[in-house]
Amino acid sequence: MDLDETFLAAEGLEITHAPDGCVVYDASREKVHYLNPTAGIVYELCDGANSLRAMSVFLAQAYGLDQDPVEATRDCLATLIAEGLVRPCTKSSAEA
Hints:
Strand content: 25-35%
CATH class: Alpha Beta
CATH topology: Outer Surface Protein A, domain 3
Distance between the termini: 22 Å
Number of domains: 1
Shape: globular
Low-confidence stretches: none
Number of strands: 6
CATH architecture: Alpha-Beta Complex
Helix content: 40-55%
Largest sheet: 3 strands, antiparallel
Strand order of the largest sheet: 5-1-6
Radius of gyration: 13 Å
Oligomer: single chain
């Protein structure tokens, strides 16, 4: 996964915010996903404009970290992709 790669949240998902993260419901697969606060932030940042690098910087600032959590962000994105919640995007899919 490239640091400058961007990601897009899947369409048709219902998101409910909770104090300890968020719940994402995929009606087409009848599956519920519980995201912790950090995974919820990463998911919300998947708008086609934010790269892996930008998400890592955002998380470092949000949590007051000394280093950007690139590997943890990469792992989180890999899980979100595997679960069908987000996908890597190309410039044309981000503009759509």
